[in-house]
Amino acid sequence: MEFEIWLLLGIPLFFSLGWIAARVDIRQLLSESRSLPQGYFKGLNFLLNDQHDKAIDAFIEIVKLDPETVDLHFALGNLFRRRGETERAIRVHQNLLSRPDLPLEQQTHAMFELGQDYLKAGLLDRAEETFNQLVAGQYSIQARRALLEIYQREKEWARAIDAALALQESGAGGRQKEIAQFYCEMAQDELVHTHADSALKMLEKAIAADRHSVRATILMGDVHLANGDIESAVLAWRRVEQQSVPHVALVAQRLMDGYRKLERPQEGLNLLKGYMAEAPSIDLLEVVFKATLELDTVEIANQLVSAELRRTPTLLGLDKLLDARLMVAAPEVRPELSLVKNLVHGYAQKLTRYQCAHCGFKARQFYWQCPGCSRWETYPPRRTEELSVMN
């Protein structure tokens, strides 16, 4: 009975205490909100409604009235940078850094924001200098990522490798694929300048970093070819199949040319036909079709394309089939068939694109690094029409 009495007395007491605490919190919140400038709420409202111009004007007015509003300076600087007004963003963050009373944490934040302004503006030397000052602090990982981006833009591949390794050591995730690509870029430069031995050393490092690097394997074959070792070049290009069968289409022409130089063209053609049976590709079909015309008969080439079109119905495949049909067509139907062929070819050319799997950027040629988003190995080795049929 005593327990029930205390319980009845305790419930109103706890309720009263909770009510008093809530009133105190509400009063404090109202007091703090009244101390904020009216323009702050106007700017916030504009920002939430994606009216960035009006939001900027509202925040500028507050900053003029109260220069001590550090957080608003940061918000204003970010808005300027997002709108591409990098000069104004730089001035905002430079003004913050010039204040002697700014706490160390906010100084570091302002420096990081300034580095991002420089990067957005393309002032890479200033951005690099700024981010180098931040690699030992709380923005270490972000600064190292920015430095990696800078070195890639400047094509300073050796420094990009160092930056990627530093990122790995800081616990920001593996960068093996990128490191292999940087070595491949260096090897490509050496190959252009006919320094085959130096290129080979770079490619060995690339494969050590990422043994699945298709690009390194392809370039290895190119180096052997530059040295006149055709047999080793062919063996290198054939290793692509072990890494990624779809990427065989990228070396199909190299393989066929290599087998021709070795005076074993039929062996090369049979090899490519085997690849096509495993991983159909328009680019692969193009090489096989031309080689079949050269080594076999027009009829066999015709049958090859027809069978491939039935297996993978694409406009690009139809374009090849009409090529084959024109070669065996009777003279009286050739003009009409040629007209159809030209129409199909015109539409097919619009589909001969590679597309980045990350940002969707389309290009006529295959890229290892997307020109749109700068990411590595985001291009599938198949044309867009083939991918849509497969999906």
How would you characterize the overall build of this protein?
With 391 residues, this protein is mostly helical. It has five domains: 2-34; 67-174, Alpha Horseshoe (Serine Threonine Protein Phosphatase 5, Tetratricopeptide repeat), CATH 1.25.40.10; 175-243, Serine Threonine Protein Phosphatase 5, Tetratricopeptide repeat (Alpha Horseshoe); 267-351; 353-391, no CATH class. It has helices spanning 2-35, 38-48, 52-65, 70-82, 86-97, 104-121, 124-132, 140-153, 157-169, 176-192, 196-209, 214-226, 230-238, 240-243, 252-261, 265-278, 282-295, 298-311, 315-328, 334-351, 384-390, and strands spanning 354-355, 362-363. A hairpin with a 6-residue loop joins strand 1 (354-355) and strand 2 (362-363). The longest helix is centred in the first third of the chain and has 34 residues, at 2-35. The chain is elongated, with a radius of gyration of 32 Å.
- Counting DSSP H or I runs of 4 or more residues, the number of helices is 21
Strand order, main sheet: write it out: 1-2
Second rung of CATH, namely the architecture of the largest domain: Alpha Horseshoe
Full CATH superfamily name of the largest domain: Tetratricopeptide repeat domain
Order of helices and strands: HHHHHHHHHHHHHHHHHHHHEEH
Q: How many structural domains are formed by the residues? A: 5
Count the beta strands. Answer: 2
Alpha-beta classification: mainly alpha
Coarse shape: elongated
What Rg, in angstroms, do the CA atoms define? Answer: 32 Å
